[in-house]
Amino acid sequence: MNKHPLLIDFPQEITTERLLIRIPQPGDGQSVFEAIQASKPELKKWLPFAQGEQTLEETEINVREAHINFLKREDMRMHIFLKDTNTLIGSTGFHRPNWDIRKFEIGYWLDKRYCGNGYMTEAVSGLTEFAFQELQANRIEIRCDELNKQSSAVPERLHFQLEGILKSEDKAVDGEELRNTCIYAKTK
């Protein structure tokens, strides 16, 4: 059970009813860049990577680094595609893994053009089920800014337990004010 993380078979993709969720691949940079650009004002409120301007080349480098980190099992970012059209609509994955206790944090963002369709709830539900069944997870966490109501709606819809709110735990992405962080979890 306590295999080295590199020896754990992890599929290149996970599917749900409407989605294909897969490891970042070289060449995904263009689609990721376009999704970020289309959603920049929304993403900029919450995510550090959206603060500055990023070129297409920088985005492609980031995708390739994410591919390497996935293979090393250090951070398992995944891209979300619509099954029917193979359109990239966002990103998710298992972040900050603790392989000794089998704890994973699920993070996510969605291209604003695809919000309001239940895609992120479906993706996180699929990842949660996969983590418990295939990775023998003992704990899945979702952390988000207390003010990010769209983000917190996902774990709430999926019946994650709000374990606590860490007060003044982090800075806002603009670095100007302190923010509270909600910690949601599901355990085995």
Automatic annotation (TrEMBL):
<dbReference type="InterPro" id="IPR051908">
    <property type="entry name" value="Ribosomal_N-acetyltransferase"/>
</dbReference>
<feature type="domain" description="N-acetyltransferase">
    <location>
        <begin position="19"/>
        <end position="188"/>
    </location>
</feature>
<dbReference type="InterPro" id="IPR000182">
    <property type="entry name" value="GNAT_dom"/>
</dbReference>
<dbReference type="GO" id="GO:0008999">
    <property type="term" value="F:protein-N-terminal-alanine acetyltransferase activity"/>
</dbReference>
<dbReference type="GO" id="GO:0005737">
    <property type="term" value="C:cytoplasm"/>
</dbReference>
<dbReference type="InterPro" id="IPR016181">
    <property type="entry name" value="Acyl_CoA_acyltransferase"/>
</dbReference>
<protein>
    <submittedName>
        <fullName>Ribosomal N-acetyltransferase YdaF</fullName>
    </submittedName>
</protein>
<dbReference type="Pfam" id="PF13302">
    <property type="entry name" value="Acetyltransf_3"/>
</dbReference>
<dbReference type="GO" id="GO:1990189">
    <property type="term" value="F:protein N-terminal-serine acetyltransferase activity"/>
</dbReference>
<keyword id="KW-0808">Transferase</keyword>
